[in-house]
């Protein structure tokens, strides 16, 4: 549902003395008009829709039983809150495909922008489409957009930390086990302390393939730090990566370290090991036997590029070393608006945002090509013969995650830092918006230009894996008074009535259950993740640049 109609909130408790709450319908969210960059006139002419698109991000499609997740190590961490962080384990980990499919279905059903009523032109997802850069995850995520039978779980049955298979109590107590316990097993802390439900048949239903509807619109994918670890054959591989690769495609799920070994010794052995030593170390760890799958291997950079949609649309990729295609490109949001997808993922797979010098050069070429007027490096207004188009940027990382200071670089051309990137964008008044994710929270930030013309809005959307699991419909409109509006409206993928704790599960009921599980996470600061009224449903006003 669009949050202009209703919202999803927490309702009644499942048990009187435990905090877990069922989902309920809440009041609609109003649209907040923001005039931080300029004041909108009061013209009575109808607004003209220039582009409408769905924005979704951080789906983290996950093969939750992949042995390469190293889940056995969680028992050795000091979880101050009594449970693993959301970066390691989420009760809804098995349901990422269901949530992505439900989101695409919802946007298909909405069809039009709720403010301007222009039909949706396309869907754009800004990175972290996968979680552990496995082939199984990538094929499932892309499969949701294409439509058809989809699963990110490449084996026929679930064998992992969420079933009641052999595991030390120090590990199992920190993991939500959806299935009923027998008389010999005590409930985990998620159930005993927080009231998480027992859902019979959950594990079987969760790994059943989803019949994805597929996107009714063209769709575009950006790369995030969870996707960046795709490798070229020539890339060096660290001993740690080789160890994890061996585990992830194998048939052993470790449940603890070898007797007498602590985590310091373990990582010392991993980082100093040869192939034979790695195999001996894996054999020495008490383990469960599970089904192996080579689909759990890391995808290559070429495989990720092959997954990017080159449909009957004008996609223009950048060019890297040796003229190989790069995961940054331009595409048409509409005839009046060009989209520029950036790759801000660090080549080393870290969470730091990076825009290298070569990509910055390419970006400036694209900005010039869509701007008849711009400012040169000295701040002088210049004109060109380019045909004016409005420009919307997309990336995984927001501006706040770029380094403040200039970084060093082996080739003498460092990546752009925060101020350098903002300076570059400020020189091109046709840049009106920047959409991104990464932070798993809603945030809307105005960026005022220091020049007479320009300024843009940065719209950060929360993730699909964590609360609030929302997407946005973004509408770019001409107000008819010399200003533009960017209306961004949040969309929930499921309704409270779809959640089931008993009976036969469907793909839709599991997607709704995922939201309920995420919304009840102990220690969750829901207000921080969902943002304030200025970060949710918004109508963002700025001057029309031409």
What are its keywords?
546 residues, 22 strands, 7-stranded mixed beta sheet, globular, 13 helices
Overall description:
This protein has a seven-stranded mixed β-sheet. Strands 11-12-13-16-17-19-18 form a seven-stranded mixed β-sheet, covered by helices on one side. A two-stranded antiparallel ribbon has the order 1-2. The chain is built from 13 helices and 22 strands. It has helices spanning 96-110, 135-146, 169-172, 189-192, 202-207, 239-248, 263-271, 275-284, 301-307, 357-369, 418-426, 507-519, 526-530; strands spanning 7-13, 21-26, 32-34, 48-56, 122-126, 148-150, 210-212, 219-222, 252-254, 287-289, 316-319, 325-334, 337-341, 373-375, 381-383, 390-394, 431-436, 443-447, 456-460, 470-478, 483-492, 538-543. By secondary structure, it is α/β, with parallel strands linked by helices.
The low-pLDDT segments are none
* Class derived from helix and strand content: alpha/beta
Radius of gyration: 24 Å
Shape: globular
Fold blueprint:
Blueprint: E1 7-13, E2 21-26, E3 32-34, E4 48-56, H1 96-110, E5 122-126, H2 135-146, E6 148-150, H3 169-172, H4 189-192, H5 202-207, E7 210-212, E8 219-222, H6 239-248, E9 252-254, H7 263-271, H8 275-284, E10 287-289, H9 301-307, E11 316-319, E12 325-334, E13 337-341, H10 357-369, E14 373-375, E15 381-383, E16 390-394, H11 418-426, E17 431-436, E18 443-447, E19 456-460, E20 470-478, E21 483-492, H12 507-519, H13 526-530, E22 538-543
Parallel strand pairs: 3-22, 4-5, 5-8, 13-16, 16-17, 17-19
Antiparallel strand pairs: 1-2, 4-20, 6-7, 9-10, 11-12, 12-13, 14-15, 18-19, 20-21, 21-22
